[in-house]
Amino acid sequence: MERNRSHQQSSGGKWLSFLVIMALAGALFWGVRAILETREQFGSAAAGAGDIGILARQVVAAANQLAACSDKKSYTVATRKLRAQVRQLETVHWSFFRGNPGFSPRNRFAFEIKQIYLSGPIHALVRVREFLDHANLLLETPYPEFTPANPHLNYLKAAVRGNLIQTVSQAIRAYQKAGEAHLYRIVTLLIAGVGTLLLIAFVRYLAWLRRQPLFANYSPGHSGESVANLLRNLPRKGLYEKETIPLR
Asked: Collapsing DSSP states into helix, strand and coil, what is residue 212?
């Protein structure tokens, strides 16, 4: 009966140890994956916000070339280049509106990325949309009507020197701050989970030690008697007599 009970306890302990190991491996896998995913998505959002600033400057650089055109043909070529820059900026802009600036197949933080882009005090959606509206209106301006004092061109120049670039900087900081906050929560949960599993494993190890015969039968008050019995049962020849080797 006692033997069956010991066998059941041993089997149950093995299963518990197996479950603890699997849970520990699962927690580490989840933690590493969540950290990498969070860094990738919020890093892509911050990089995408920086790309908006770069593309906006490229749009202004292409728009400035319109004033240097001396005929309709060169104006058409400059307009084509400007249109390509504007479309590229629109692509990045709409990726933020969808909450997926990294163009990944699955974006866990799409809603939060979108909300940062849309809401105040940044209002990046409004600022970038206004910039794109003026760029598209500039593209619709025919060659005979274009002058260096074009109001849309002046708006684009002022935007990259002021509010648009400021908005881009605020968006970059907001995405970095949000990513750091998520990483802090993930690491905290990971440490708490791993610590709990290690505590369970340690308690399980102590319980296993208590069930071992050497520790279960050990009593400090009878240690001298146990040693005496052990010495009494040893073969005396091996302790007190020298083995003689016959001469040949």
From this structure: coil
